Each structure stands twice: as C-alpha cells, then as structure tokens.
Input
Amino acid sequence: MKIAIASGKGGVGKTTFAVNLASSYDKEINLVDCDVEEPNCHLFFDEIPYKTKEVFNIIPKLDKNLCDNCGICRKFCNYGAIINGKNHPLIFDEMCHSCGGCIKLCPKSALIEEKRKVGEIEFIKHKNINLISGKTTVGTSASPFLIKHTKNMVDNNNLTIFDIAPGSACPVVSGLFGCDVALLIAEPTPFGLHDLKLIVSLIKDMNIPFFIVVNKMEKGNSIIHDFCKAENIKIIMELEENQEISKIYSNGKILVNENQKYKNLFKNLLDELVKKHD
Ligand code: SF4
Ligand code: SF4
Output
C-alpha cells in the first residue's frame, strides 16, 4: 500500500508527520522522500547512507556545423529552453525538461544527446525503516524525473509512505501519482486554508482518496473544520500545538519514539488506513 503525505504549503509539519507515521510501524516499512528539492526526512536519523545512486537524464547539445538554423527545435520546445540566435539556436540547459523532442525532430541531426546529472538517490536503513531519499542537483529543472526514479527504487512488498513536495505544482503530481491514499496536512490559518483548497482540488482531479490531518490545532479555531464540513471531507486526525511536542522536535527527536500516547495514535491511524485499503 502506498500512502502519500502532502500539504498545500510548506512549514505545516508534513515531514515530521511522515517520519512519525513510519516510526510508529513495527514491521519493515519504506519512507520515500519525494520532496527532492529540499529533502528533510534524513535529518531525523543518525545513520549515513549505505548506498547512493546518481541519476542522469539527457539534454540536447548543438553541433553548429550541422545546424542550418531552421527553427524547428525552437518552435517545438514547450519549455522555452531554445531561443533564436543569429546563426544558430541557443539552448538553456537549466530550462530543458529532457523531453527529447528537439533531438528527434532536428532534420539535420544537429542535436546530440548529452548526459546531465540531475540528482542522487540516497538509501538509509534505520531500524525497520528503509529511507529512500531523492535530492536534485542545483540548477536543474528535473524534479518530476528524479521523483519518478526515486519512487522506482521502492520495494513494493512493504507498506510505503511518500513525503510529497509542498504545494500543488508538477513535483506534487509526480509524487502523488500511483498512491492509494493521501493524507493532507493542514494548518488552521487563512493561508493554510487557501493552500489546502488548491491541493484538495488537485487531488480530486487525480481521483486519489484522501483525508485531512489538522496540525498545530488550537482550541476554538474551526477554520479547517468548517471547510471540511462544507466539502464533506473527513478529518482523520488532529494534533494540538503544545510545549511537549515542540520540545521533542526542537531536540531533533521523533515524537512517537518519546511518547507512547502519540505512538498509539499514529499506529492506530496507520492500521485504519491499511484496513480501509484491504
Ligand atoms: S532543428 Fe536542428 S537544424 Fe533546425 S535550428 Fe534546431 S538544431 Fe538547427
Ligand atoms: S529536450 Fe525537450 S525540453 Fe529540452 S530543449 Fe529539447 S524540446 Fe526543449
């Protein structure tokens, strides 16, 4: 079973939630960090990677001697990575999404495939958790490509939790793709609600079952509850903001390892999700 942990915005506790959920499980489990532009799951574990895999894609490299500046490649590129030059097109590697279309279409075979490193995938073993963590190379625009490769490293026999990038753009779609259920972590603030609405709309379009987790819950604040009631969305968990939780996190510890009440809470949630799926 594949469980996505997502949020409409950063800073709402998505990664800590994913780490706690994985840590509450007693059997072998995969935790996949799909937030490849800023992977943070590994910060909760002391172990160093036992394996690292480099990931490459291809970008076009121009042979100026063959090019007649026909402009076909520039017209084709949807990402604005190719612009007009005086004698030949100019290619901006950092804008290229490696679709390969320009290389295939060039009538003069003037565009040659060149390998570009887009990131690395790190593998860390912590007790029963297999952490698989993608990390992009700075200056590349290949997050969806790297996310796909990172997800391909997963042993599908185990329960898997995916920590998805925040927001509702392309890397989020890549992370959510193929997941059985998603938990959307929401913060009860006007900004939190605004961004929650965006990801709810996206996830409905993707037809993935989902539930809401309200994090940093405050007494008397019903902003997320009102929205969920109106939209008929189930809130599956609420976590209050308190000093004990803040202290545990500020010491770099994992909540469920420090407090049995929370371990039971997260474990019960995981059991409930697995039961709903079976
Ligand atoms: S399609 Fe080929 S020949 Fe035409 S401008 Fe591009 S690189 Fe040059
Ligand atoms: S490979 Fe695709 S994205 Fe990259 S420059 Fe060519 S057409 Fe544009």
Q: What stands out?
A: The longest strand covers residues 111-126. Residues 60, 76-77, 79, 81-82, 91, 96-102 surround iron/sulfur cluster (ligand 2) (CB under 6 Å). The chain has a mean pLDDT of 93.
